[in-house]
Design brief:
heterodimer, A: OB fold (Dihydrolipoamide Acetyltransferase, E2P), six-stranded mixed β-sheet, five-stranded antiparallel β-sheet, 20 strands, about 25% helix, elongated, B: MetI-like fold, 12 helices, about 80% helix
């Protein structure tokens, strides 16, 4: 082991410091700093045009950042071309070489490293086995299904044993069932091979189920970074709350704050208490974010039994009930000003449209977002 | 509904018949002259007259023994091979360059490459003749080559550019990502992906160069290419069987090359 490897043993796998990328006057990536741990599965999540793919391409070396630095395993790679970086990419359209068979495709990286024929053959066989395509080495990419091409692209990248594997919406072209299976496989691969994965997607469900951590991006910036649970349970901004899963937003103004719980006056719903880490001054307009599945809906004639001190209770009128199989989705109006979407497990009884209902949820399940 | 529409739009029996005849007439207009030339090349009599009474390969024999005519064929091969070789390198390089270029007015530059094939040959001919005269450069096969390169580039350029438009940019990125430098990326990935387009452009350029008259006419010195030799003979006398034989050879070469070019393009698609 060389000295530098030893020194870098504790370095993060990938580190972006103040990275920006402008295309003409458009700022695609705007001052992004990000530290990815070794072996971590990190997802860049956001809508199209949020800068996630550009960020990935900057790590790969396809784009030179307009500002900032990139380190991989502690080594500065900002000025290095893609072929000098110890990273490999799985492209959205797979980008398999059509004039080469699968074995040649998978072995390409090793050939470029001028490994011996026997070594290449052995490692290609291993990689093909890893993605369960053993024995198909002589096939051409065009003879494969989309899912198989996807796995070849994966093998072609992993065979090089990169420090970091970059995946650019690799499952976008697959149908839902295959996508689910591949999500599981990718997660499994990440854990078994110990390679850092940076995964780009606009699919929030994909991000939530696969990632160790998720970085939510919008407008070229990282809005929030954290585990799936952190992002879902405690979204930092309204955009994050809205983009990850569904959320209700109740607009109001702060009337009180104590020990991380704010009281918000919401028109139609009265005083709502919600999680709020930092003190916010009275009178400031805020939103209260609330997940539809955290609300319990009950007929209003029932006494509000069991309402604890840690709960909010509001009354409203059931406007609409949508039958969605395993769940029932309700729209409840709270006076003229506000409306809440409620999602309940389908227990066989739907509430009647037009009736008054009572809604309750835990203070811990709703949080205050400054607009 | 669609059945009714088809019924309404379908030509009647008479219409179908006349369309068929019209179609065949167009083909006849295009191909009867060519067929006559080919048939006459096998005419044993020295005068072209219908019907042909005696068949022979005599004209081809005469052609083979005609020093000027065979020399002109060699000259044509020389000109075309050199001109096309230069055009392949320049045209392919230009197409690769334009494929990567991200500048405003890119299409204008591209059009400037294509223009020589749009311009009448007579304009190219006069322009280049003026240039060579001003430079006091003696006209020869070399000047013809220079003239041919101008339009041969276009065929290679267009063919390669059309192919590159369908090769995803990620292909070259994937190669770079897997450790190939710019040269090896070109050699192992880009070149194989445009290979058939380069070949088909080459074949088309060769076909065009081999029977080109107008530009060659302005830029020729003392040595003639095959089309110029044929043309100069026609000014002196009538069409002789060996000219028909030479023309038949031209047709054969063109058909084979264009056919091969089409096949290569289709194979890739």
């Amino acid at each position: 082991m060389s000295v530098s490897t030893y020194m870098n043993a504790e370095a993060p796998s990938v580190e972006l410091r103040g990275v920006s990328k402008r295309f003409g006057s458009v700022s695609a990536v705007d001052d992004v700093s990000l530290t990815v741990r070794k072996g971590e599965f990190l997802t860049l999540l956001g809508p199209s045009g949020c800068g996630k793919t550009t960020s990935l391409r900057i790590v790969a070396g396809f784009e030179r950042p307009s500002g900032g630095t990139i380190h991989i395993d502690g080594q500065a790679v900002t000025a290095l071309p893609p072929n000098k970086r110890n990273v490999n990419t799985v492209f959205q359209n797979y980008a398999l070489f059509p004039h080469m068979n699968l074995a040649e495709n998978v072995g390409f990286g090793l050939r470029m490293k001028r490994l011996g024929r026997a070594d290449i053959e052995r490692r290609v066989d291993e990689a093909m086995a890893l993605v369960r395509l053993e024995g198909l080495g002589k096939r051409k990419p065009t003879q494969l299904s989309g899912g198989q091409q996807q796995r070849v692209a994966l093998a072609r990248a992993l065979v090089n044993r990169p420090a970091v594997l970059l995946l650019d919406e690799p499952l976008g072209a697959l149908d839902l069932k295959l996508r689910r299976a591949m999500q599981f496989e990718l997660r499994h691969l990440n854990q078994s091979v110990g390679i850092t994965f940076i995964y780009v997607t606009h699919d929030q469900e994909e991000a939530l189920t696969m990632s160790d951590r998720i970085a939510v991006m919008s407008g070229g910036r990282i809005l929030q970074i954290g585990t799936a649970q952190e992002i879902y349970e405690a979204p930092a901004t309204r955009f994050v709350a809205d983009f990850i899963g569904e959320s209700n937003f109740l607009e109001g103004t702060i009337s009180d704050w104590e020990n991380g719980v704010a009281t918000v006056d919401v028109a139609g719903a009265g005083a709502i208490r919600a999680r709020c880490v930092d003190r916010i001054a009275t009178g400031i307009p805020v939103s209260v974010a609330l997940r539809p599945e955290r609300i319990i809906i009950e007929p209003s004639e029932q006494p509000a039994a069991g309402v604890g001190a840690g709960e909010n209770v509001v009354r409203g009128r059931l406007l609409e009930a949508v039958y969605a199989g395993s769940t029932l989705q309700y729209a409840v109006s709270l006076g003229d000003a506000a409306q809440l979407i409620v999602r309940s497990p389908n227990l066989g009884q739907a509430a009647g449209v037009g009736n008054d209902v009572s809604l309750r949820w835990s203070i811990a399940d709703c949080s205050v977002l400054v607009a | 509904m669609s059945a009714v529409m088809r019924e309404a739009n379908a030509p009647g029996r008479l219409g179908r018949w006349s369309l068929t005849v019209a179609g065949w007439l167009v083909y006849a207009f295009l191909y009867v002259p060519l067929i006559i030339v080919i048939l006459y090349s096998f005419n044993a009599d020295s005068i072209n007259a219908w019907p042909i009474h005696h068949w022979s390969f005599g004209a081809y024999n005469t052609l083979a023994n005609d020093a000027d005519l065979t020399q002109s064929i060699k000259n044509s091969l020389y000109v075309s091979v050199i001109a096309v070789s230069i055009a392949v390198i320049l045209g392919t390089a230009a197409a690769l360059g334009f494929n990567r270029l991200r500048i405003p007015g890119k299409e204008l530059f591209s059009f400037a490459v294509i223009l020589p094939i749009v311009l009448p040959g007579i304009v190219t001919g006069i322009a280049m003749l003026t240039l060579f005269t001003d430079l006091n450069y003696n006209l020869s096969l070399t000047t013809i080559i220079a003239g041919h390169v101008t339009f041969c580039i276009v065929l290679v350029f267009n063919s390669v550019r059309a192919r590159l438009a369908r090769v995803p940019a990620q292909m070259a990125e994937a190669a770079r990502d897997l450790g190939a430098g710019p040269f090896r990326t070109f050699w192992h990935v880009t070149l194989p992906s445009i290979r058939t387009a380069v070949i088909s452009g080459t074949l088309l350029a060769f076909t065009l160069s081999f029977d080109e008259v107008v530009v060659s006419f302005f830029l020729a010195g003392r040595e003639n290419t095959l089309p110029l030799e044929i043309w100069s003979r026609l000014r002196r006398s009538t069409i002789t069987p060996e000219i028909n034989a030479a023309a038949t050879l031209l047709i054969a070469v063109s058909v084979v090359l264009v056919g091969a070019a089409r096949f290569l393009v289709r194979e890739e698609e």
